[in-house]
Amino acid sequence: MFATGFGMLAPAMTEERKGDKITTRAEDYPQWYQDVVREADLAEPAKVVKGCMVIKPYGYAIWEKIQRELDTRFKATGHQNAYFPLLVPQSFITREAQHVEGFAPELAVVTHAGGEKLEEPYVIRPTSETIIGHFFSKWVSSWRDLPLLVNQWANVMRWELRTRLFLRTTEFLWQEGHTAHATHDEALAEVRRMLDIYGAFAESVMAMPVIRGIKTASERFAGAVETFCIEAFMQDGKALQAGTSHDLGQNFGKAFDVKFQSESGALEYVWQTSWGVSTRLVGGLVMTHSDDAGLVLPPRLAPIHAVIIPIYKNPDERTRVLEACERLAKALGDIDLAQDGARQRDWLTVQIDDRDLRPGAKFYHWERRGVPIRIELGPKDLEKGQVCLKMRVDTPAATGKQFVPEAELVATARARLLAYQDALLLAAAERMNTRTVQLDNWDEFLATFAGENSTFAWCHWDGSAATEAAIKAETKATIRCVPLPGQGPAPAPGRCIKSGAPSPQRVLIAKAY
Amino acid sequence: MFATGFGMLAPAMTEERKGDKITTRAEDYPQWYQDVVREADLAEPAKVVKGCMVIKPYGYAIWEKIQRELDTRFKATGHQNAYFPLLVPQSFITREAQHVEGFAPELAVVTHAGGEKLEEPYVIRPTSETIIGHFFSKWVSSWRDLPLLVNQWANVMRWELRTRLFLRTTEFLWQEGHTAHATHDEALAEVRRMLDIYGAFAESVMAMPVIRGIKTASERFAGAVETFCIEAFMQDGKALQAGTSHDLGQNFGKAFDVKFQSESGALEYVWQTSWGVSTRLVGGLVMTHSDDAGLVLPPRLAPIHAVIIPIYKNPDERTRVLEACERLAKALGDIDLAQDGARQRDWLTVQIDDRDLRPGAKFYHWERRGVPIRIELGPKDLEKGQVCLKMRVDTPAATGKQFVPEAELVATARARLLAYQDALLLAAAERMNTRTVQLDNWDEFLATFAGENSTFAWCHWDGSAATEAAIKAETKATIRCVPLPGQGPAPAPGRCIKSGAPSPQRVLIAKAY
Lengths: 513, 513
Prior knowledge:
Radius of gyration of chain A: 25 Å
Low-confidence stretches of chain A: 9-18
CATH class of the largest domain in chain A: Alpha Beta
Number of helices of chain A: 14
Number of strands of chain A: 25
Distance between the termini of chain A: 36 Å
CATH architecture of the largest domain in chain A: 2-Layer Sandwich
Structural class of chain A: alpha+beta
Number of domains of chain A: 3
CATH topology of the largest domain in chain A: BirA Bifunctional Protein, domain 2
Oligomer: homodimer
Strand order of the largest sheet of chain A: 3-7-8-14-11-10-9-22-25-21-20
């Protein structure tokens, strides 16, 4: 499929505005992140609306691809989308004690509407457990109504003090799944099912390896009995909580009176779950793969898969070369990247860049946007019946410029893209694994997390909130999760790295976004 | 594709709750509408949030199909999606004089956030011309940056006094296109292009015929130079404004200082457009096709295309019949309804209803949900190698129950669905045409619009706002639009139905939602 101009929205913001260089990661990692987001034209701070951002077309196209992939998986597991009100009566938030404690400080409040002061203020949803709990109580009356499996794609608002594009903004876009079940076992199975979907999505689509685990009590969602999470490794060694799946127990069922008559006739509260991922994933994507030249994107989430750059010196060459470019673009646009058995097609998107700019400026432009394949085509290539192909990032399978016979381009491009997807995951996993450590000594721990330093550290912990708080206070590192089976080192008892008290297994510690 | 339980969300809300009958249209049209929406499980009033609704899974699935169809058309015409902040600084709204006059009475205002009173309040976007104008001013500097073609799928809020599910709610979902151009001509071409897309979508996808026209000054979007619209005919003779496309001139360009250097080097304000449709379309869909038995859906927007109802008397029959149902469902689910040349597939969605209910209760259930095809299958049909097929609404091509050889089911189902789509459009057009009148006499006009009566009336109008206001005051009927060429009777001069003054052509008058 032909792209419709992604990333060419505002030329004034690219080649013609000099000095927009990308700081290296080594020099200043946070600045590098900002530079990559800006130069790839993904988003910009709204400024006039505190802590908000504008998601620009190229960034939004990535989010749309994330949505499509996840939505397909949610529906395949029996969930249905619905839409609940943006505004929540303020009193709803207070009904669940932990919930109000967690969210009250971050609420935006509507006090006036239609020219009048409201009798009861509304808050803009920071999350929708309360308002959805209210409707569940109207919809559920019998065990036959269960399970109730609902998801919502929506905007939410949390008034944060320190914000950062995609990673933490006052308004963000997300999906929030909300389900109700007849038994705790069924709810727990749902929590694990959705965590599995998040984990598989992160790895197979985002090419971002994650550690699956359980949050400690202090990091739990406000109102949950247990929070499961996936944690991703960013290139500065920090962790990104990339998705969470909550066992809500009967907490919201009790707060909103969601009761049902069981098969045996007893009146019981439902067991609920909620789970969500947000536009923060785009930030995680940037920080997992990008390099000092700018954005790097896995093909499954790239708005443009291939850019074709015509090379010519005069009008006659231009005509011939462009004609060939159109032919290549058409052939490439008919490549279906969908996996075997997929019910929908996933067309390769290609763009010809025929702007009046030097080829070098165009290379630079698309490199910073992370387009996986660059194709150059000039008169000499035409004569030889070949094209010059280069992947955005070298991989063991394909390094630098390669000349491919035109007749083989379609097969080569498809194979290269699929291999590139795998190569990015492998490279990210290798970075994470190489930099993951096991620490057993507090001085070593302090050195590891000195200053802004961070990495993934598997350490013994005595299980106490006091120790957890002491570690955080002294180093800013936090317990990211207690790993699920198969994640991290095999469980074995040891001594807490901080207190020396007994510990049943290692937990994952890192600084976090 | 197998459906995942749409419309089976809450059995307690259907068969088991007696007395939820559908009022006839003749008896009480507004009540009929509410009953159809409730019985099809499309949405319900939020109640705890003033004027808001919950869009339930079956209703949201229709909205998703509307979104997919429109989004494809927007992208094919070069538009890109983006996302702008929900909150707008209150001062932004006041920058364009007409705009603030139109929207100020309907604003919801955020005065507190993060536990503190805000220095400047924010309003929840009622529409986004102002905040998007602000960003356009940052993105546009040269003619090379134009046209800028952006669309946003979002929620908006307008504090309305009288609300009605889908048709008018304080919060609603919509898309808003915003574009900037170098010349007025280009902007006008965009305005017309998008009106054409809306019109073609309404007719070919929603099977809802529309009149394309231009709003009078009093019905214009607050801040627009000209508003183009599509108006649809509801079964009670009222009009529904189903989509609008605005020529904003340079109004917002001047208010937000969106300037560019033209090719000749002059500094000029951009010419802008905006255009939108909302979840109100779902209400229009309901009121265009549904009947006294409940919802009727055109196949292109139906979440479920076919339901299979097994008929059996004992466990042995059940086993054999269900096995055959699964076989039929699989075959039907492999039907691609996409039009020739479509880049994506549009799978037929089928559901087997094996709930422990009488077949009659199931017929009733799916009829009220507007599923186009009902298939019954019992032991006798199995013996004869046939199935019993019935369309939700009789059409000239297919009336009542018909027996189809199983071997022909796939071809028959596909052909029937495509014919049904066309038949619904034809039937709706016939209703509109039959009930559209030309009036030239004020007494006749008064009789036509007496009480709650309405229809589509082509009348001469003298072009003055005073006459327009007098007509509205006396009859509640309004000028829906001045028709575009080819819409309504051929233009010919005449005398205003109210004032008798000269008129160049007839305009469309009706009461409206």
